[in-house]
Amino acid sequence: RKLPGVLHELSKAIRMIPERIKKTPQKISDAKLVEYTKMILEGLTDNPFFPDAAEHLKALQKSYPKYVDAIPSSSERNKVKTAAKEQHKAIVIDQLASLALYVEYRANFNLEALRSSNFELTSGKRQPRGLVGTVKNVRLNTNGEEGLLIVQCDVDPNARVYKVRVSEDGENWSEFGASNTRKVKVKDLPVGKKLYVQMRAENRQGEGPWSASVMGVIPDPLVIPSIHE
Description:
This protein has 5 helices and 11 strands, in the order βαααααββββββββββ. By secondary structure, it is of the alpha+beta class.
């Protein structure tokens, strides 16, 4: 079986480690996983397409040597050592999955960037996603951190990313970066001022319309008090 780690060339999601594989990581040979992880580390280190990769690589750079060191011990057929090795293996797999999501988002459909990361690319054809609609049930929250706003909505099955924009007057907007999940964190917002917040979904087919505005004030707990068209 080919090692999971497939970056679809122009797709929303990287099914880096399918759930069925994550549940049974022993099906992936240690030798192949070691080789694959080494390739990813080499591909992303000092890669100009991923200038902030170093921060995302820290966890894998820490866990990978522990996994490699644990492999010889598992050959002794010691149940405790084998269990420890499998635990290190599972950690590496999870971190590769997270790293793949970062790569896909950062590459932003640039095929050359995707290839430079050393993640495998699939050549199989995929059915295109449909158009995204207006996101529903936009809601606001804070976690107590000053200036932080958490915006989320119901899932749009066709969405690739979700974006948020914020305004103090409902007319002049500041747009914030995209998120692969329907929960977007927006930082450094003014405290104590009424804010208008809108959200939308996007994919390869285009951008969805901005939602109706939801209003809230930081740092008070943000419950949707009214809708501003």
